[in-house]
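Title: Prediction job returns without error message
Component: structure pipeline
Severity: low
Priority: P3
Assignee: unassigned

Description:
Job completed but the reporter wants confirmation the result is attached to the right record. Sequence as submitted:
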Amino acid sequence: MKLKLLFIGLTLLLGLPVTGQNCSKYYPMEEGTTLEYTSYNGKGKTQGSVSYTVTNVIDEGSTSSATMVMKYMDEKGNEAFTSEFTYSCAGNTVTIDYESLMSNQMLEQFSDMEMEVSGTDIELP
């Protein structure tokens, strides 16, 4: 009887979701994880692709933070653009550092212009 109760208890505990490890399937918290998306035209030919790779994960209490590298490729597979951004996961909310989305490569395109960018972090439930 005790063995059955122990087995049922362990089964219930293993079935509970583990919080803090991955609060979003779109923003993984495991270093080395790579997601790749490819765009196709109406004829099915590749127009380009982007790969996202998690390069660094830091766990601090109930919050996990990660750095993700975005690599854009053109239709021929040549690297067109690389950028990285940081995001964190606390509870059921993913927070993206909006400033890290503005890479130096992107800002170089506007070097002849005077501009000011301000805002708050992006929060996704």
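Comment from assignee: result matches the submitted record. Helices lie at 2-15, 104-108.
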